[in-house]
C-alpha cells in the first residue's frame, strides 16, 4: 500500500523560524549592537557610581526583571511577620535618622524571609541562600534593609545578576533541578567567575540549611553611609544577630525534612508567635570613617568581601522583636515591595556597583510585578503622611482632590511644597565624583581568594567536614567532567586539602593550583560556639501504655518551665494512660509525626519498656542519634539503647539520678553533638 506523504508540521516550522542557536555567536544587545564588555556597568571612574545612560545594563536588567509572572524571579518562596525595632541608645553622632536616635521609640517593622533559587512551591529546607529583607515604617518614611543571611555575594557588579540567576535556576532545556545548585550550569558559572570563590565557601557551609528563621543571621551585604546633622558621613555595614544563636540542620536531615514538612521554617515561626512568643535579633553596625576607606587589604565597596569583625568590630545598637503573624500571606507577604533604594534622611548609598544596579532593578521589578501603584498597598504604605503629584496608573487607590497635578504652580501656592533640608528634606550626600566613563573592574576588587581562605581557616573540624561533603555532593551531581576539574582547581586556590578530599570523592585529579597564602582566621565566622538557650526548642515525648506517670510529668513540667515546647507522640493519637492516673493525649502519632521535627526526644519509661524497641519507636531514637541531637530516656529504657549501641554516647542521657534534668537541659542548649560519630 502506497504511503501518503507526510503533511508539513506548520507549528514546528513556525517555531523553528523563531528559534536561534547562540553557540559560538557574538554577544549583542536586542538591537544588534555588539557588546564589548558584559562584566561591568558603565561607571564614572573605576570606583565611581553607575550611570543611568548605560543602555546595555538597562536592557539586560529590564528584560531579566520581567522573566517571571507573577512570582518573583528570585526570592519567590517567602514568609513574613511583623514586629518592632528599638535602638538601645542614640546614634546621633553617626546619623540624623530619627528612628536610630530615640531609645523610647518603637518602630514598626515587617520582615520577609525567603530563598533565592527555588520557585514559590519549593521546600523550605533545601540548601539555598536566604533572604533577610526588612521594612522599617519610620516617622520619616520607609527604610528597607534588603539583605541575606550571608554577608557577601556571588558577584561584584549587578549587570551580571541575570547571568548568575540563569545559571542557578533549573536548566532551561528540562526545568531540572528545582531549588538546587547541584547541576552543571551553576558550577560552570562559579568555575568561570572567580569573584564567586568567597561566596561558594559560604553556600557550601551549613549557613544555607538553617534550623529556623529564628537562628539565622541577617546582613545588609552592601556598604551604606550614615550621615549626621552636621553632614559628616561614615561607611556602615548592618548585621542582625539572633538571640537564639546561629544553628543549622544537617544535610541528611534537611533533605528528609523537604519531604516530611516542606513548610518547616514557616510553621516554626507561625506556631511560636501564635503561642505568644517572639523571635529576637539585635542590630549591629560596623563603622569605618571616610578617611580610612583605603586602609584595608580589601575594597570596602566590594560585595564579595566582608569586613572581618577582628578588624572592624560589630557594635550592637538595637533590638528587633517579631511578634505578630500576617493575616493574609498574599496581601502582605507576597505584595510587599521591598527596595534597597527606600532610605530616609541620615542613610545614604555608596558606589558599590552591585548596590547601584539594585537601585534600578528593584524599582523596575516592583513596577512590573506588583504594579504602578504598589506603594499604595497597605503593606507598603508608610505610617507618615505622603503627598506628591503622581497620578493615575493601574490600580490607583488614592483619590486625589483638586485640579492641580504639577509642580511648580501658582494656583495652589506651589504645593505640595519642597521641604527645607533643615526641616527634614532629604539631601543626597555630596560625594565628589570624578572619572572617565568606563566599563572596568577596579583593581582593588581583584583579590578573590584571600577571604575565601579566611573563611576556611575559621571553621571548626565538623564545619570543615560538612563543607567537604557539600562540595562532594554538589559536584558529584555535575555531569561535565571539565566543569568538575575546573572547580577542583578553583577550590584548590582556597585549600589544597579541601580540594584533594573533594577530588577523590568525585573522580577527578587533585588540584594543580596554588592555595591562598592567607593564614588569618576570624572566630566570628564559625558556628561552633553559640549561646546555649533552650527557649522554644521542641521536645517530643514518646509514650506507651503504662508509662511512668510521675517521672514523666516531672520531666515535662521542668522542661516547660524553661520555655521548652512539648509534644506527645505514641502509636495512635488516642489517650495514653500512665501510672498514678497520669495520662496524655498525643499531638501526633508515629505515622503523622517524625523525629526530624524535634530538637530532642524524651523516651518515657514504664511497665512495658520493650515497646520502645518496636517499629517506629526504634526509628525515632536512631534518627535523633544520627542527626547528633540530644536524647533523654527513662532508666527502664536503657536496655533498648544498649541494643542500639548508643549507651554512654555524648548527648545520650539516662534518667537515673537527681542530676538528670540539669544535664539534659544543658544538652538541649548545646543542640548538636558532632563528636559522637
TrEMBL record:
Positions of crosslink type 3'-histidyl-3-tyrosine (His-Tyr): 339-362
Any one Pfam family match given in the protein's UniProt record, by short name: Catalase_C
Positions annotated to bind heme: 72, 112, 161, 358, 362, 369
The EC number(s) this enzyme carries: 1.11.1.6
Ranges annotated as biased composition (Polar residues): 16-31
GO biological process annotation, one example: hydrogen peroxide catabolic process
Oxidoreductase as UniProt keyword: yes
Gene Ontology MF term list: catalase activity; heme binding; metal ion binding
Record's catalysed reaction(s): 2 H2O2 = O2 + 2 H2O
Residue ranges constituting the Catalase core domain according to the UniProt record: 28-415
Organism superkingdom: Bacteria
InterPro entries xref list: Catalase, Catalase_AS, Catalase_clade2, Catalase_clade2_helical, Catalase_core, Catalase_haem_BS, Catalase_immune_responsive, Catalase_large_C
Record-level GO cellular component terms: cytosol
Cofactor: heme
Record keywords, A-Z: Heme, Hydrogen peroxide, Iron, Metal-binding, Oxidoreductase, Peroxidase
Residues at the active site: 75, 148
Top-level EC class: oxidoreductase
Positions of the UniProt region annotated as Disordered: 1-31
Reported function: Decomposes hydrogen peroxide into water and oxygen; serves to protect cells from the toxic effects of hydrogen peroxide.
Sequence similarity: Belongs to the catalase family. HPII subfamily.
Protein name: Catalase
Protein source organism: Shouchella lehensis G1
